[in-house]
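Give me a protein, keeping tokens residue-aligned:
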Amino acid sequence: MMSEEHYLELCENPVQFENASSVNNVFFDEANKQVFAVRSGGATGVVVKGPDDKNSIAFRMDDKGEVKCIKFSFGNKILAVQRTPKSVDFINFMPDLPHLEYSQECKTKNACVLGFCWTNWNEIVFITDQGIEFYQVLTDRRSLKLLKSQSINVNWYMYCPETVVILLSTTVQGNVLQPFAFKSGTMSKMSKFEIELPALAKPAKLSLSERDIAVATIYGQLYVMYLKHHSRTVSSPGAEVVLYHLPREGSCKKSHVLKLNTTGKFALNVVDNLVVVHHQTSQTSIIFDIKLKNPDSALNVHQSVLPARSIHPYRIPLTGPAAVGTQAPIRCELYSSTWSVFQPDIIISASEGYLWYLQVKLQPALNLLQDRGKLLDFLLRRRDCKMVVLSVCSQMLSAGEKGNLPVVATVFDKLNQVYKEYLEAEQSYTMAVESGPSRGSATHKRPVRTQAVVDQSDMYTHVLSVFTERKDISHKFIIAVLMEYIRSLNQFQITVQHYLYELVIKTLVHHNLFYMLHQFLQYHVLSDSKPLACLLLSLESTYPPAHQLSLDMLKRLSTANDEIVEVLLSKQQVLGALRFVRSVGGHDNISARKFLDAAQQAADHMLFYTVFRFFEQRNQRLRGSPSFTPGEHCEEHVAFFKQVFGEQAFMKSVTV
């Protein structure tokens, strides 16, 4: 298998901790993403490693029995340790407070503590086999205050720290799940729901195992993922992952089914809003995107986006005395039975002492997913997609005539739809800010410009400007692609930047397609702009009609009068420039010197006489005297007029 096809990889800088062979126990805290390596004997030594901790936290505790569970509250302020089925011990890790242990027994008589979850820096939930107990930790008093409790038979529990929701498995079969939500000192009971179990000949007493359930946030929504195993029969479709959408309010509903098409041992991760399913038997993984809908299916039944591939091979560098300079890194055993998978994207190997973040590589998708429209839908929802999306465009266009123009159009439309949505959100934000705060309105948040926003500058720089230089692709296809992109921008009412029009014009000129250029301008396929008019002017030596096309464009703009005058004067069309200025009513404010300079340079005495007389008449009308003021700096032209036509030719002042 080509290495380019591995679309999943383990992060380059994993969290390293003491492996299971050198410690008694290794615990993982999903809320803080911390690994606790616990060593017993005399005193209990603990080393804590987290993803954001530059240095590990190490401390010792009195050995009061085997540690069953250990977690810090948020910010490493309070440590909670469970050693017995009845109670949890606490140690304050805040400055100015003594590091003395204090304990809290569960309130329910004859109950056993299954575990605990921190919901805030000083709020904790005990989950027992008979319900849950919500406490506030009073650090200064070294005691706990019961805030709320709920009696319910519990088989096992699951916690989603991101949404602060705890899921309890209840009933004999364990398939009725009761969620609770926590927020700043309050506990809310959410709607319970039932997981639909596969039809078995003999229903097991506890049919739903916590190994087959995961809770994660996908596209901002909370889902309970159920790994549904089917009995091994000839007609069996294989296992599937059933997603139940769990809203804060309202009932939980079955919303998606992910078809695995095989059986065996599986594990689940969520990476970049993709559900990743690892299959231990084949040592491969597949990914699902629940937003990629199957048009042929009424239900949200999904097949994997890409074919099954293994995680990219990972090599563990040798460290310590055993490491020799010439010794190669050891290849890590992927999909090991000692791996533990945690939500959303964590894989831990306790035997090797590594915590990895699972990552998605997008580049391999270019070769694994041939449907360009579907590929783009997939890529545009990913976090770091921009350069891969641009390479999709380049790859698509490099096929030349073989590339289907309707496919190109579809891709451009998908890009510009996202682009337009961002522009509209930005405009709404700007208008809201300018109008000021209104009563009862929420604080306006500036829209985030994700990498899915591919604007005209991105397309011009990375795709189109390079594409137009290709010698192996017909100019007809190049121009068709450029016009297709402009069509798409217009369709989404996005103002086309002048540099795209310039690219079209330069491409047409390069291939001597002047008739097409003339038509594009005549029928306003290329929108008017000053930069475009100036570009047309520069083409006059190659294509003489470009001069008049440029002037016509400038006139249509109506804000380019100065540019038109400059163009006409540069062509020594001085009288034409004067006539234009008079036609737009600007002749009272124009600079006499500029026009007299142009007339003198034309070496046509009668032209100079006409222009000079025009400004004398203007001066007489405005100031009652034909003379030029010193501020007009026309002394040189007055002297030239006197030299050529004599002093008697000057216009006499007329007193009204």
In short: The first strand starts at residue 8 and ends at 10. The first helix runs from residue 365 to 368. DSSP finds 15 helices and 32 strands in the chain.
